[in-house]
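Z., the sequence and structure:
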Amino acid sequence: MHMMVSDPAKWVDDMANAGADQYTFHVEAEKLKCSEDVKTLIQKIKSKNMKVGIGIKPNTSPEAVLPYMDDVDMVLVMTVEPGFGGQKFMSNMMPKVSFRIII
């Protein structure tokens, strides 16, 4: 599941009950005001026996996910702006994909 929602914690139980085995949320979500909110959400997802993914939009620095790298199973780097159809692949996002490998 890739959840592009303002309150990702709200949907964890429903997605787990529907059989999801992975839950990816965006670090930029409106309801995630601080790193403790993100850490709490990660633990909630894990408590439902789902893998955890964390996503970033094109304008978000990859450093935004560094505090959570040891706790997540996947990082999703968006290569288009969410919410707009027909976009071209943003190849300038590729350095973000290799960011973790470099540091």
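Strands lie at 2-3, 22-26, 51-56, 74-77. The helical segments are 12-17, 35-47, 94-97, 99-102.

Let me know what you think.
H.
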